[in-house]
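G.,

No rush on this.
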Amino acid sequence: MTEQPGTPPPELNDDIAPPPPPPPAQPPVDPPEIPEEPVVPPEYPPDPPYDG
């Protein structure tokens, strides 16, 4: 049995786990676009004039 060049001997390949398969290539998922609604503050009665 002749060793192929570039192939590690079997005794060195026993304790090395094969690398996990790369994750499938997926395009980045953009977050859903949230329409910018103007923030309307609740209508409070006007504060009475503070005379201290």
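When you get to it, here's the other one too:
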Amino acid sequence: MQIRNLFDDDQGVSPVIGVILMVAITVILAAVIATFVLGLGENLSSSAPQASFSFDYDSSATTPTNTTLGSGGALTITHDGGDTINSANLYIKDSDGNSVTDSYAEHFSGAGTTGVDVSAGSSATVRVDGGDTVRVIYQDDSGSSATLNEWTGPA
């Protein structure tokens, strides 16, 4: 047998490639199934809602009267668009971690109790100090949270 013929002989290549592909597909399929069986797949599907909030600060305003975040001007937070979010899952916190309330449902116009949906056009007004950083935070029922938007006031 000549060495030259070994390089030109393609017999046996096709079955080897077939076996390698079948093993690769089996490994990938097993990894996907294991992810969901072990509960890791649940975290992949839950994500924070996509919503846009705008901020309007009035340093001369004296209302509302809450002073949890500060005693400066009034910060109006408006839901501009995106997903509708249950108000019980929304929080307003400053850079020190202080929260306006447990949730800020009562601060949204037309949302007097927790559990009300906050949609585009809803707004909340809170008192803050000028240089504060204020975050709108979404927290789901399992305790996972995500910052939806952030505002830093003038010093």
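The chain is about 25% helix and 30% strand. The first strand starts at residue 51 and ends at 58.

Enjoy the weekend,
O.
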